[in-house]
Amino acid sequence: MDNAATLAFFQNFYTEASLYVVSEPTAALQPADASAAAPAPLVSAVVPQPTGQPAAPPAMAKPAPAPLPPMPPAVAPVIAATPASVSPHPAPAPAPVVTAAAPVAPAVTPDSAMAGHAAVTLTLAPLPAAPAAPPSQPGRVQPTPTQSPVAHIPFSTLGSNFGGLVILVRLPEAQFRKLPRNVFLNNLLKALRLIMEDVVLVNVEHDSYPVALCSLRQHLGARQFLAFGKNLLDVAVYTTQPYEPVLLYGDTAFLGASEIEMLEYDAGRKKKLWQSVQRMFGV
User: Which H or E run includes 248?
Assistant: First the structure.
């Protein structure tokens, strides 16, 4: 290592100390009294020179210090935020954000929902004609669309779409009044894209006799009948089978099924009913 590199190394190592290199002393020492009177000379440390290189000059000027690496920029101290409960000057609470309230739609009641609903009439699919009625027993008259021995049997109705689908049932009066809210019946109508206002509910008010088709046609103009129960329509007693839709007299479609309370809890009967309804209306 040369002399300049050595000085630079020690200069950087001792940043506040001045280093000088002097030659070895050759002059005789001064007398004791003179050395006592004169102040002692300041002697700096002697740096040994490597073998084979000349000694440094006796008085060497102080070299310029090597440039120091730049100091990193000062970083502002980070002050940890104190909790609001401890801080002597709590921050003001943020202003509440006020948003415009969305307009609330008016409540829709069943009456208002039905008011703007147009009545729907189902289109019948091609159906087979009902078979001929078996020979009547002696003393009995086979009913026709114009006359029937049971024309006097009373019935009650719910609904105003007298040209729509007719649903025949035989229920007690109180239970019949609750029928428009029956879940099973509403789901069936929904599958047909109908609502309760699209049909007329007819309750046969006799325990065993059916209602007469001629009596119904005096009040209703419908040609589509869905019967939930046995022996509900006079002209269909001997000419129909359950879950088999047929045409009666060429213009009246009829489909018979089990009672509603039996269909509600019987998945097999529900499936048969839906397949029959699909054949009847082509859905």
Answer: strand 246-248
Torsion sign (Cα): 189, 191, 194, 195: positive
Q: What is the pTM of this model?
A: 0.58
CB of 276 within 8 A of CB of 247? no
| Mean pLDDT for the stretch of residues 98-111 | 40
Cα distances (angstroms) measured from residue 272 to each of 49, 96, 223, 245, 275: 117, 61, 22, 12, 5
Alpha helices by DSSP H, 44-115? 110-115
The per-residue b/e assignment along 6-32, b for 16 or more CB within 10 angstroms, e otherwise, is: ebbeebeeeeeeebbbbeeeeeeeeee
Q: Mind listing the pLDDT tens digit for each residue in 114-168?
A: 445 666 667 888 899 998 888 777 667 788 888 899 999 999 999 988 888 999 9
Largest distance between two CA atoms of the chain: 175
Domains with residue ranges and CATH for the chain: 1-65 (no CATH), 123-128+145-281 (3.40.470.10)
At residue 188, the 3 state secondary structure works out as helix
pLDDT at 67: 59
